[in-house]
Amino acid sequence: MRCLVTGGAGFIGSSLVDRLLAQGEEVVCFDNFDTGLIRFLSEAQENKRFTLVKGDTLDVAALKSAMKGCDIVFHLAANADVRFGSQHPRKDLEQNTIATHNVLSCMKDTGVRKIAFSSTGSVYGEATVIPTPEDAPFPVQTSLYGASKLACEGLIAAFCEAYDFQSWIFRFVSILGERYTHGHVFDFYRQLSADSGTLAVLGDGTQKKSYLYVQDCIDAILLAIRNARGKVSIFNLGTDEYVEVKDSIRVITEELGVKPALSFTGGSRGWIGDNPFILLACSRIRALGWTPKASIREGIVRTVRFLKANDWVFAARETPAWS
Amino acid sequence: MRCLVTGGAGFIGSSLVDRLLAQGEEVVCFDNFDTGLIRFLSEAQENKRFTLVKGDTLDVAALKSAMKGCDIVFHLAANADVRFGSQHPRKDLEQNTIATHNVLSCMKDTGVRKIAFSSTGSVYGEATVIPTPEDAPFPVQTSLYGASKLACEGLIAAFCEAYDFQSWIFRFVSILGERYTHGHVFDFYRQLSADSGTLAVLGDGTQKKSYLYVQDCIDAILLAIRNARGKVSIFNLGTDEYVEVKDSIRVITEELGVKPALSFTGGSRGWIGDNPFILLACSRIRALGWTPKASIREGIVRTVRFLKANDWVFAARETPAWS
Q: How high is the pLDDT of residue A273?
């Protein structure tokens, strides 16, 4: 199987690339290296079944060229910055919605008929049913990020209907683990590296969040594309647990052996559009035989250990990623 | 109140323009005249409170200029061609999703904080609950048109959250009445004008459809913006009735006094992505005191009578609309 992985130099993308190569697939990685890191692909680049293309999903010609001859697209490229959406509202539209339209349009033109897509639990907005199942009541969006991913899901389903594609849509909770380079554990780690005595926390620390370990996430994706046969298969991906931000801080500080004074900005939301509570009902993917192997605590610990052992990612996130 | 009506030269848009002027508002009509017709605005153009701007919602500068000083935007401009979405998939993206992003972005820049939006019952895809309420199970999209309107709804809600806008989102069934210039009654009328002896019908004629008379639709919109106070208020707009395409044909042919032989293309769908059954639960808007005054039958009869008395619309739909 020849696979195109958009965003293949990113946290989840590069982890997927390695797993696909390990199971014997051919992999084309397509990434604009805005946030992707070339070092995540160092092992992949030694594999003859791996091809690297530097390109942007807004560049239709480059995308189409990379896609030719592929059997499936894993479309992970995105502006994943849920928090700062209100500061640059057009970025989600371009990098998520229009980019996904381009991917689908190129699939139509090149005859690729299968797409796996990384959506988000944020599409549920402030869910009225918790844990939230895939067929929860029609949600009202609360973030530009969630809205853009919802738009992508709609496009994918409509293209499936119009052009007989098959799709797998995965609504993730936040993902943790090796190669994690943005989000709260990253921010807290960076703050504590600079000054282990204090930690500034957005919100009041009681926001409840659900996390999933990256390899468990990839297990689920690979299992679903093998076994879910529908035209449009939608799966929540998360654990049955949740933690409060405060709990997460406890795990991080214990792992680092520091005892910072915490200062909270207050309020039940970390930022505008933040969801105070995300917990997804994952019985659909569990019915296929999937079970997460790592607890949230283990996911956080592995993330902290990765960051400890890979100081370079902090510098890499400050400088052009391709360099 | 100064109102911007995008798509204000269209069927529903121009009807809204006239009603807003009649209730004493100032109205700026913004239309690219792709499908809008200048003759629909002949009465409006005699009113001092009316301003006409020829512009496209993809032209941000023109849009922003037209929006300045307005209190509310009625965003009706759209590619309303649900049927041929699969033949030009980018049109829905541009004219609906990107255009709506532009409208919201210009509102942010000009300080306009209220938006009323024409969405569609097509966002429910193939609804699992019928009649379908606004909080029906999270739908899977089946048409590029529905997907694009879903994307618009998501953007509107997210902008409301991020920038403290207020919005009213209306999910319409198909609208009928004076100035109706596309859709099945139009197509059937045109066929029967050319040859009253035969009528070709997409599907098997048993597709169930719900329709609403245009003035009832506008009553609901004006009532909702006066009385619904939430940040994001979503309303289905339809009647409690439905008809099969066959029933609709009977009303049209009786009104025209013709007895054509019917030929059906067959199948339960008129086209790819067509919904075999749309019926919306409208208790939310009814709870505000709204009741449709015209039955579906009356809506069809009024449409046929409008077409009979306005032969010019058939020619106008074939030639550049601005001319």
A: 56
Query: For A302, which DSSP code?
Result: H
Contact A158, B143 (CB under 8 A): yes
Looking at the complex, does the CB of residue B166 fall below 8 Å from at least one CB of chain A?
A: no
C-alpha dihedral sign at A81, A83, A84, A85: positive
Tens-place pLDDT, residues A155-167: 999 999 999 999 9
Q: Does B125 sit within 8 Å of A162, measured CB to CB?
A: no
The total number of residues shown for chain B amounts to: 323
| Type and span of the H or E element at B52 | strand B50-54
Q: Which residues of A touch B159 (CB under 8 A)?
A: 89, 144
Residue B151: predicted pLDDT: 98
Asked whether the bond before B292 is cis by omega within 30 degrees of 0, the reply is no
* Closest CA in chain A for residue B150: A151
Spatial distance between the Cα atoms of A269 and A92, rounded to a whole number of angstroms: 21
CA dist., res. B221 & res. B167, Å (int): 12
Residues counted in chain A: 323
Q: Give dist(CA B127, CA B138) in Å, integer.
A: 9
Q: Considering only A75-84, A129-138, A255-264, B286-295, which range has the smallest mean pLDDT?
A: A75-84
**Model ipTM?**
0.93
Q: What contacts A84, CB < 8 A, 6 or more positions away? A: none
> Is the CB of B109 inside 8 Å of chain A's CB atoms?
no
CB contact under 8 A, A140 and B93: no
Domains and CATH numbers, chain A: 2-176+210-237 (3.40.50.720), 184-209+241-316 (3.90.25.10)
pLDDT in tens, B2-16: 999 999 999 999 999
Q: Would an 8 Å CB–CB cutoff place A188 in contact with chain B? A: no
Q: Across the strands, what pairs with A4?
A: A28, A73
